[in-house]
Amino acid sequence: IDERRDPYLSTQKATDYLKDLYKVYGDWLLVIAAYNCGPGNVNKAIYRSGGHYDYWKIRRWLPRETRGYVPAFIAAAYTMEYHKEQNIPVAQPKFTFQNLDTVHLTKRTDLSAVEQYTGVSQEELAFLNPSLKKGVVPASFDGYTLRLPLDVMKAFATNRDSIHHASQKMVADKSDDEEENESTATKSASGPGNDMAKINYTVKTGDNLGYIAEWYDCRAQEIRNWNGMYGSRIVPGETLTIYVTEDKINHYKKVDDLSFSQKQAIESKQDQGVDVTTVNASTTAEEDECDCKIYTVKAGDTLWDIARNYDGVSTTELKRANNIRYSSSLKPGMKLKIK
User: Is this structure's pTM higher than 0.70?
Assistant: First the structure.
């Protein structure tokens, strides 16, 4: 949890700090300057100006950023106060405190479990609770206040025990996965097994070991071991040795000929539990036949961000239209259908 990212708590702390600064300077412009560059720099500027406690008289001795920060603050405050007179339209927030409620949690709660039982997407939950850095409310004696849309409070209260149980199961499953990965890493260190076949992959522009490992259902460290690599640097045109299971070698041989978006689309299907070894490469080009808009995912995108760019589109509709089960399945280069 990073409470600095919580708009309510961070604003409360900021206003407390501003009040303390006003007790020192007795002038709000000097307070804003000190908030930006620190009281030490303001005190130095006051001294160099001959003891003036007037922002405009000490401005020349302040850091360049602060000389621009205070006028910008004044302009922002003026715009907020007189936006009607200046015919400046005001954007209404998607959420207000009038249609939100809170619930106090002391047990570990995973936002994916909350999504499962309330229907509120993880992106929306993260937006409402920005201090949660990893999508999880940690267990604590003092607890954490989780913000939720008012209309799902009944669903949360009804399924509260199920949500906690699901969160505990996720922890157990994660521990099992970590043990399995550790076991796999130990085995892979000694080389490929007898049921593995060797194929080659030619590195393309934009590739990295993480992507390649996903496309061939292996680990990046295995690729390093197979190719005698000590780092993660690869260059376009370089040939990598990859070992895959013999019974699926025909599927993996096709990967080298696919475009980046096609490979990412197949990986997305695999995240949804589809047997990608039976997927024909041509089916990944569905955007050519879709009577809809196509959006190419960029680095840092979330379903929540993408949905907000299209009127009437929700994250649930995006998941349904693109067969996405988890938000974490999004990867740069993926093509999303917007209906």
Answer: no
* Alpha-carbon span 258 to 212, nearest angstrom: 12
Q: Are 219 and 188 in contact (CB under 8 A)?
A: yes
Annotated domain spans of the chain: 3-81, 97-167, 196-338
Which of 10, 8, 42 has its CA nearest to residue 25? 42
CA 120 remoteness from chain centre = 16
Dump pLDDT digits (tens) for 56-112.
999 999 998 999 999 999 999 999 899 889 888 887 776 666 688 888 888 888 888
User: How far apart are the C-alpha atoms of 137 and 133, rounded to whole Å?
Assistant: 9
Rg (the chain; Cα; Å): 27
For the chain, report the end-to-end CA distance as a whole number of angstroms: 36
Name the 3-class secondary structure at 136. Answer: strand
CA distances from 15 to 9, 57, 71, 96, 148 (A): 10, 25, 19, 21, 26
Closest CA relative to residue 47, chosen from 27, 37, 39, 18? 39
User: Would you say how long the chain is, in residues?
Assistant: 339
What's the CA gap between 160 and 162, in Å, rounded? 5
- Which residues, other chains included, contact 233 with Cβ-Cβ below 8 Å and sequence gap of 6+? none
- Collapse the DSSP code of 31 into the 3-class scheme (helix H, G, I; strand E, B; otherwise coil) and give the result: helix
